[in-house]
TrEMBL record:
UniProt domain RsmI HTH: residue ranges: 253-297
Enzyme class: transferase
Entry protein name: Ribosomal RNA small subunit methyltransferase I
Function recorded in the entry: Catalyzes the 2'-O-methylation of the ribose of cytidine 1402 (C1402) in 16S rRNA.
Similarity field: Belongs to the methyltransferase superfamily. RsmI family.
GO molecular function: rRNA (cytosine-2'-O-)-methyltransferase activity
Keyword Transferase listed: yes
EC number, UniProt record: 2.1.1.198
InterPro entries: 4pyrrol_Mease, 4pyrrol_Methylase_sf, 4pyrrole_Mease_sub1, 4pyrrole_Mease_sub2, rRNA_ssu_MeTfrase_I, RsmI_HTH, SAM_MeTrfase_RsmI_CS
Species whose genome carries this gene: Aquipseudomonas campi
Chemical reaction(s) catalysed: cytidine(1402) in 16S rRNA + S-adenosyl-L-methionine = 2'-O-methylcytidine(1402) in 16S rRNA + S-adenosyl-L-homocysteine + H(+)
Chief location category: cytoplasm
Presence of keyword Cytoplasm: yes
Upper classification of the organism: Bacteria, Pseudomonadati, Pseudomonadota, Gammaproteobacteria, Pseudomonadales
PROSITE patterns: RSMI
Amino acid sequence: MRAFRCHRGPPVSVSAASVTATGTLYVVATPIGNLDDISARALRILREVALIAAEDTRHSIRLLQHFGIATPLAACHEHNERDEGGRFLTRLLAGEDVALISDAGTPLISDPGFHLVRQARAAGVRVVPVPGACALIAALSAAGLPSDRFSFEGFLPAKTVGRQARLQQVAEDSRTLIFYEAPHRILECLADMREVFGADRPAVLGRELTKTFETLKGLPLGELHDWVAADSNQQRGECVVLVAGWQAPEGDEAISGEALRVLDLLLGEMPLKRAAALAAEITGVRKNLLYQVALERQKDA
Ligand code: SAM
C-alpha cells in the first residue's frame, strides 16, 4: 500500500496494483538566441522523456541535434494543439513522460501550449515547469525600468486603429509595460506609442537579445522612434519594447480649473481625441496630458 494524492482532495490509500502512475508533462524553456542559455536540467529532461511535443519539429530538430539528443519529436502547434492534445494525453496517461517546447524561450508565452497544459492538468497529469530563457524577462532584467510591477501585453494588433485602441487601454497603467513586436512593424508601433503615450515617456527597445547584435536602447519614445527610423539595422531581428508606466502629473503639470472647464466643454461636443487636441491648442497644456485626463473623466462619467 502507498499514499496517493489524487489531483483533488486529501491523500488516499490504494493498493499498488490498482494504480497506473501517469507520466509527467514537462514545460521546457529553450534559448532565445544563445544556445548556451539552455539549462543542464532542460537537457537532461529532453534526453529522458519518451516524446517531445514541439511547435515546429523542423526547427527543434536542429536544437536537439546540436546537443546530441535523439528523443522523438511530434508537432504541437497552434493549429493542431486543441485536436491533437489527446494524442499526447494518451501517452501521458499511459505513464510516459512528455516534454513541451516551443521554437524559442518559454512555451505558452506568446507561444502554443496553453491547451495542452490545461488538458493535462484537467486529466490529473502532473505538469512541471523547467524554467529558462524568456525574452520579456531578459529585457526587463536589463532595461533599467521599474521591475517591481509590470504588465506583459504580448503582441499588439497589426493595424494602427486596433493598435492605438489597445495602447489607449493601458495608457494610464502605472506599471512598466512590455510588448513583443515583429521587426517589420517596429516603426509603426513606436509611432503609435509616441502618439498615445506621448513623446516624453521613457522606453527601452530590446533587440536580438542574447545574440551577436544585441541592443538595449533606452530613450524617450519620440527619440527612440527617430533613432530606429534613422538606422535600418534597428528595424531587423526580434524585438521587445518596454515602456515606463504612467505617472500622474505634479506641480507645473497639474491642470488648471480653467483648462479642465475647456476640456469638459469640448468633450460634450466632439470625440475625445479631437477635444483633447483642441483643448491643448486653447490652453497650452500638453495634448497627451489632456488626453489622459479626458480618458479618466469619461471612465468616471
Ligand atoms: N516564447 C518566447 C519567449 O519566451 O520569449 C516568445 C515567443 S514569441 C512567438 C516571439 C517574440 O518574442 C518575438 O517576436 C520577439 O518579440 C520576442 N523575442 C524572442 N526572442 C527574442 C530575442 N532574442 N530578442 C528580443 N526579442 C525576442
